[in-house]
Amino acid sequence: MSSTYMPWAKLRSHATYNLATSGVAHWKLRDLPIRIEDLEISGPSFYGFKPLQQALARHRGVAENRIVAATGTSMCNYLAFSALLKPGDEVLIEHPAYELLIAAARQVGATVTRFCRTHESGFAIDPGAVKRAVTPRTKLIVVTNLHNPSSALTDESTIRALGEIGPRVVVDEVYLDAVFESAPRSAALLGDQFIVTSSLTKVYGLSGLRCGWVIAEPALAEAMWKLNDLLGVIPAHLAELASVVALGELPKILKNVRERLDRNRALLHRFFDSRHDLDAPRFRFGTVAFPKLLRGSVDRLCDHLRKKYDTTVVPGEFFEMPDHFRMGIGGDTQPLQEGLHRLGLALDDMMEN
Ligand SMILES: Cc1ncc(COP(=O)(O)O)c(C=O)c1O
Questions:
Q1: Could you read off the pLDDT of 83-104 as tens digits, one per residue?
Q2: Is the minimum distance from the CB of 144 to ligand 1 under 6 angstroms?
Q3: Cβ atoms within 10 A of the Cβ of 323, count?
Q4: Per-position DSSP letters for 12-46, written without gaps between them
Q5: CA torsion angle for 13, 79, 96, 267 (degrees, to 10)?
Q6: What is the CA(82)–ligand 1 centre distance, in A?
Q7: pTM for the full predicted model
Q8: Span from the CA of 68 to the centroid of ligand 1 (angstroms)
């Protein structure tokens, strides 16, 4: 049982012009006010490091006993699935989806069923379609907000409607802060029906800290801490200390991220305007876009783009939509601009051949 996407992301997505990554470019240690004398290798981290729990609770506006700190959103999703699913249970996951959600659910023995977020609807969630896909064996509904791969935003009333269907709902909100002040409230504030996972990875460019968290009702949170005893045991304390500092810097980081994404999205939309061979729902927020290639093969395009133009995007096959591809706009503006130019050249080549 393994992911097909992750080996590709780790080993084959790299290029001089990398439009494959979904996160904002990495912040450097020197960009944060961390002094060596504030760091320590080991510390009192037993079911949470108090200063980090407090900082996360402030960040999300929830009580500390609802927060489980863990290694990235990835581990958070795994903990949530492990705590809520047993072999044979059904888990209803959006389509298209971030592949690791499907792989993690299968890893815990669940049967994965799907509901569609269609390109034509702008990858919106239709609670009616979700409801129709629920069966008596469905124990969990899983969505991302913002949606990976499209960046579609789901509003609060739709999320609430999902919560009313019956099964509990995991909302992976790792991209939600890229909506800035227009963001809907976190699903964590909408009731115990919801389990939210997130991290500082994607929007804040702090992936290496692996600062992730689950928000769930206290008894469930406690069950996940106990599960984490089998997996992460205790976190790297250096990363916990650095995460506390980073959480204090989020407003500053977010201002920078916003300027970057606004600038980069304008370039992306101008690029889409210039292409008749791509069809992409356009969104005001998010770090990724998911265009459909109207002519030719995405695999051939990706291959050609990489070999001739040293540029990468993510083939849609990893999201079970092989006529699409995913592009990220969280990188530096200059390489993005060049990457878009090169993507345009590769698309032109495809039309000639
Ligand atoms: C929807 C979604 N959840 C989780 C992750 C993994 O996040 P993390 O790096 O915090 O483990 C990703 C990474 O691309 C993602 O797209």
A1: 999 999 999 999 999 999 999 9
A2: yes
A3: 16
A4: TS--SEE----SPPPPPGGGS---GGG--S---BS
A5: -50
A6: 17
A7: 0.97
A8: 16
Question: Best of 13, 68, 100, 319 to mutate for ligand 1, by most ligand atoms within 8 A of CB?
Answer: 100
Q: Which of 285, 337, 293, 339 has the alpha carbon at shortest distance from 312?
A: 339
Q: Among the atoms of ligand 1, which is closest to the Cα of residue 144?
A: 1
Cis peptide before 209 (omega within 30 of 0): no
> How far is Cα of residue 237 from the mean position of the Cα atoms in its chain?
24
Q: Report the nearest-CA residue for atom 15 of ligand 1.
A: 98
DSSP 148: T
Closest CA to 290 of 334, 332, 323, 258: 323
Q: What is the DSSP letter of 159?
A: H
pLDDT over 80 (residue 318): yes
pLDDT in tens, 179-224: 999 999 999 999 999 999 999 999 999 999 999 999 999 999 999 9
pLDDT tens readout for residues 95-132:
999 999 999 999 999 999 999 999 999 999 999 999 99
Is residue 198 in contact with ligand 1, taking CB distance under 6 Å?
Answer: no
Asked whether 150 lines ligand 1 (CB < 6 A), one says no
**What is the token pair recorded at 46?**
């037993």
Q: Which atom of ligand 1 is nearest to the CA of 210?
A: 10
Residue with tokens 């001739």: 308
**Beta carbon of 216 within 6 Å of any ligand 1 atom:** no
Please answer whether residues 203 and 24 qualify as being in contact, where contact means their C-beta atoms are separated by less than 8 angstroms. yes
Sign for the CA dihedral angle at 290, 336, 98, 220 comes to negative
Would you say residue 274 has pLDDT above 90? yes
Closest to 3 measured CA to CA, from 80, 63, 78, 66: 78
Above 80 in pLDDT, residue 256? yes
